[in-house]
Amino acid sequence: MDKGKFATKAVHSGQHPDPSTGAVSVPIYASSTFVFQNAEQGAARFAGKETGYIYSRLGNPTVRALEESIAALEGAEDARASASGMAAISTAAMAICKSSDHILAGDALYGGTHKVFTDILKGYGVGCTLVDTSDLAAVEKAIKPNTKLIYIETPSNPLMKLTDMKAIAKIAKAHGITTVADNTFMSPYLQRPIEHGVDVVVHSITKSLSGHSDVVGGAIVGTKAFLKAMDPMYKNMGATLGPFEAWLTLRGIKTLHVRMQRQTESAEKIAKWLEDHPKVEWVKYPGLKSHPQHTLAKRQMDGFGSMMSFEVKGGVEAGRKVMNNVKLCGLAVSLGAVETLICHPPTMTHAVVPKEDRIKAGISDGLVRFSVGIEDIDDIIADLDQALAKA
Ligand code: LCS
């Protein structure tokens, strides 16, 4: 059942009953290797003349079910699952860019992505320019003859700045550049970049897709041709996901739409409540009318998501008091799961980003990031209220 509307695909895509036992839940194929019927079959599989499993770094049935599920949800031809979101991002980038190529990336990126693009890949001869990708003229201007990849996070982590995906994809296509969008913040339930012309989608499935703070994993989503070209990098550099994490993520995906509906509904109310709170300086949430790209959010997203950032009046010290006084909300990095989490990006998720890059991008020292879970909204607000009272 790979057709139907989103909720149907979330429950069924890739998740076919096990042909040998009829098990409704995809089995966890906890096997590193697969026996061949004979040497000829082994040779044929290695030569790509026969389909079938060989060795779990090269493919595993549980992982394959997850890949089919994610591809269906993103409206893509295919997907590859990876050991983390960072494995997905670095594999995709290294498959697209070779020595002396150039990456154009958003100026507010997850800290790990910033590190890979601006520092680690530099060691392999790949250049990177950070640009505000919400400014299309700036993007055009920053394109170089050797630019091979335009990389966007929309909304960006943690600024919640949006990039117009249709416009960026058009610019990139005109220059023969591959676009990659990190869709971790939204999940395919709320946003499907490929529908807007983006070539490749990457995910940290650690977040909303698995949804229960019990998995670290990633995914690369795109055309069969792109993924086939990426496979030598993906398989030989060893970015593969394990079957248990794949199964947990499949289990999480079955309720993705239900969780995201609740999280988005609560986040919209919490963002408005925070915006009206006398101790809050500002709130960045795409669902607020005060968000400068609220109209774009309505156009390219099916909902505004569970993530927001805000600053408490009194800056860093006041924000720290809120984080140290929450009781229900967990003071932890990560996001998108059933538990509400609060964190301080400048000293945590984005601590690896040099301060000058952080400030230039607008990530102020007082910024607090908030990921809304599925707990009762009254309890989340009461917890924030008592913590803000102590700030
Ligand atoms: N992309 C985004 C937008 C992320 O937020 C993260 C991790 C990654 C990619 C990398 O995924 P991972 O390798 O961790 O699965 N973001 C984190 C964060 O904001 N807090 O903790 C991790």
Secondary-structure blueprint:
Elements: H1 6-12, H2 39-46, H3 61-74, E1 78-82, H4 85-96, E2 102-106, H5 111-120, E3 127-131, H6 136-142, E4 147-153, H7 165-174, E5 178-182, H8 187-190, E6 200-204, E7 218-222, H9 224-237, H10 243-253, H11 256-276, E8 280-284, H12 294-300, E9 307-312, H13 315-325, E10 330-331, E11 341-343, H14 355-361, E12 367-371, H15 377-389
Parallel strand pairs: 2-3, 2-4, 4-5, 5-6, 10-11
Antiparallel strand pairs: 1-7, 6-7, 8-9, 9-12, 11-12
Helix pairs in contact: 3-10, 4-5, 4-9, 13-15
This protein binds ligand LCS.
Indicate the low-confidence ranges by residue numbers: none
Q: What's the total count of β strands?
A: 12
Strand content: 5-15%
Q: What percentage of residues falls in helices of 4 or more residues?
A: 25-40%
Gap between N and C termini: 52 Å
CATH class annotation of the largest domain: Alpha Beta
Q: Strand order across the biggest sheet?
A: 1-7-6-5-4-2-3
SS content category: alpha/beta
CATH-scheme architecture of the largest domain: 3-Layer(aba) Sandwich
By CATH's scheme, which homologous superfamily of the largest domain applies? Type I PLP-dependent aspartate aminotransferase-like (Major domain)
Order of helices and strands: HHHEHEHEHEHEHEEHHHEHEHEEHEH
| Cα gyration radius (Å) | 21 Å
Mean pLDDT metric: 96
Shape: globular
CATH topology of the largest domain: Aspartate Aminotransferase, domain 2
Number of separate domains = 2
Assembly classification = single chain
What profile does the largest beta sheet have? 7 strands, mixed
Bound ligand species: ligand LCS
Summed up, the helix count is 15
